[in-house]
Inverse folding.
């Protein structure tokens, strides 16, 4: 059985779903950040899959270009989020989201 | 060029196993290690599909940048064992927190995954698929992707560069300590040192009392440092 776009979409959905589980289950800000990266990686896999198995005559490699830019944005996101976590830690001495309830009202 | 089936499954299994280990890791350190493994699996998966440049970037970011930045953040957010801390006190296991919330999280994740797969399956007939030029895949997509990025996507490419620069500068500005935080840190350090001095003085006094014998000279007098505590 040859590999097609359906296989890639299923794998990307599974990676994305694992990331969703991590965001909801983890309470550490770092754990949630890693799970968010999983979600983004899942989306990138789908983009690359559609670019690879799509009609090359329409827009060649557009999906790969978007995935490339999305991965660059992910690197920037990690940098900023870690800085925000550092700031939150300095003020509250914790990185557990349950204890960061300043805005809870 | 067709995709190598066994290699695709190996890459997919490695990526999925890494992803599962990331979200079920006992602590963040093991999750970061699993994330590096996930990056390698993802790179293999993308390489097998035929996206060599994106695969390289994915390995670079998922197995290099993200673990390095997160580990640095972890080091900076860990309290060093101070004078009053018990270094052997076990930290609250993160696994217990995961176990408390897993049914709801698992339900939402499975539901969302099923929804995505269902939408993909229902719209599959409308997809326009085709064979990719074999010479492009045999010789790699780097040159073509570079041309696409610098022609059709020149503006987003420059924007991504600016975004990275802004993120680095912004992260430095956010993480910089302001005056109030420095004052708070100093006050907290002074308080910890004061408490440590008092604790040591109390221990010395207890040791001195336990070591003296009845009838020794100076029994009735105050012990050294006792008058300072009040």
């Amino acid at each position: 059985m040859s590999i097609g776009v359906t296989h890639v979409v299923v794998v990307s959905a599974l990676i994305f779903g694992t990331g969703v589980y991590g965001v909801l289950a983890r309470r550490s800000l770092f754990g949630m950040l890693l799970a968010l990266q999983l979600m983004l990686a899942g989306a990138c896999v789908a983009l690359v899959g559609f670019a690879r198995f799509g009609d090359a005559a329409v827009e060649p490699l557009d999906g790969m270009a978007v995935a490339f830019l999305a991965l660059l944005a992910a690197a920037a996101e990690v940098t900023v989020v870690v800085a925000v976590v550092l700031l939150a830690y300095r003020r509250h001495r914790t990185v557990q989201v349950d204890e960061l309830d300043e805005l809870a009202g | 060029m067709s995709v190598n089936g066994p290699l695709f499954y190996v890459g997919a299994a490695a990526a999925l196993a890494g992803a599962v280990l990331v979200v079920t890791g006992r602590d963040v350190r093991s999750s970061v290690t699993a994330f590096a493994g996930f990056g390698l699996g993802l790179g293999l998966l993308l390489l097998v599909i035929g996206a060599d440049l994106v695969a390289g970037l994915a390995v670079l970011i998922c197995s290099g940048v993200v673990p390095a930045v997160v580990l640095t953040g972890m080091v900076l957010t860990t309290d060093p064992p101070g004078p009053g801390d018990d270094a052997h006190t076990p930290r609250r296991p993160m696994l217990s927190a995961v176990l408390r919330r897993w049914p709801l999280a698992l339900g939402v994740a499975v539901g969302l995954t099923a929804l995505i797969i269902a939408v993909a399956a229902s719209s599959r007939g409308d997809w326009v698929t085709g064979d990719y030029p074999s010479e492009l895949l045999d010789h790699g997509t780097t040159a073509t992707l570079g041309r696409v990025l610098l022609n059709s996507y020149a503006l987003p490419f420059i924007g991504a560069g600016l975004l990275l620069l802004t993120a680095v500068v912004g992260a430095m500005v956010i993480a910089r300590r302001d005056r109030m935080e420095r004052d708070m840190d100093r006050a907290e350090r002074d308080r910890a040192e004061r408490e440590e001095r008092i604790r040591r003085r109390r221990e010395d006094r207890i040791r001195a009392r336990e070591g003296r014998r009845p009838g020794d000279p100076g029994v009735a007098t105050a012990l050294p440092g006792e008058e300072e505590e009040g």
Summary: The longest helix of chain B spans residues 179-211. Chain B touches chain A through 88 residues (CB under 8 Å). Residues 80-93, 226-230 of chain B have pLDDT under 50 and may be disordered.
